[in-house]
Amino acid sequence: MTKIRFLPDDITVEAQVGEPLLEVADRAGVFIPTGCLMGSCHACDVELEDGHCICACIAAVPAGREYLTINLFVDPTW
After folding, report:
1. Has residue 78 got a pLDDT over 70?
2. What pTM value is reported for the model?
């Protein structure tokens, strides 16, 4: 199990390795906007604690991590 912390709301939920991030967020009551659901429009970009951005629609909980912090930001043009 990995603990996923969503900021700025500071919501933490446990997730299984390989579980899609959008499903984890939904289960936690966290909204991540989506567009194409294929990773090309970047509407679902989230920032990891190390500063890297990923597309939540095509990302899953990675192996080998006990904790993962995801910073949500919303692009006002979406």
Report:
1. no
2. 0.87
Beta bridge partners of 2: 15
* Residues with Cβ within 8 Å of residue 63, at least 6 apart in sequence: 17, 18
**Please, which residues bridge with residue 13 across strands?**
4
CA distance 24 to 12: 10
Euclidean distance between CA atoms 19 and 51, whole angstroms = 21
- 67 within some domain: yes
Please list, in sequence order, all residues whose beta carbon lies within 8 angstroms of the beta carbon of residue 31, skipping any fewer than 6 positions away.
25
Structure tokens at 63: 């192996």
CATH of the domain at 17: 3.10.20.740
